[in-house]
Amino acid sequence: MNISKSEMKTLLKSQQGELDAVLMYKALADVVNDARDGETFRQLAAEEGHHAAVFHGLTKETLKPKKTLSVLMPILYRIIGKKKLYPLIARGEYNAAKNYAPIAERFPEIESVKNDEKRHGDKVAELL
């Protein structure tokens, strides 16, 4: 299957986002006060890793996760608390699902990733 330049750009950006989310969720799991939250974040980290693998299967590119979110989110957790932070994380998951919708039409394997992102948003929102 031929992947256009703009599709590749979207796929790589998505792959990077999933990799970054793995580190972010692992970092949050280590600092949250609630054990249930920590367990949820560890589970989400694992699923985001699977998503990164789905995109890697399409891009064939090996990317390195960026640590920005994994450093920033634990700090934000300590400063603004979960009541303000978790809705931001949930919104990020919902936005990812929205962003994946158009590309999932062309690459059906992304459909399950898109659905997972919506579910992730719901799971994070349920922690409140």
UniProtKB/TrEMBL annotation:
A single GO molecular function term of this UniProt record: oxidoreductase activity
InterPro entries reported for this sequence: Ferritin-like, Ferritin-like_SF, Rr_diiron-bd_dom
Domain Rubrerythrin diiron-binding: residue ranges: 10-126
Pfam families listed in its UniProt record: Rubrerythrin
Gene3D superfamilies recorded: 1.20.1260.10
Protein name in the entry: Rubrerythrin
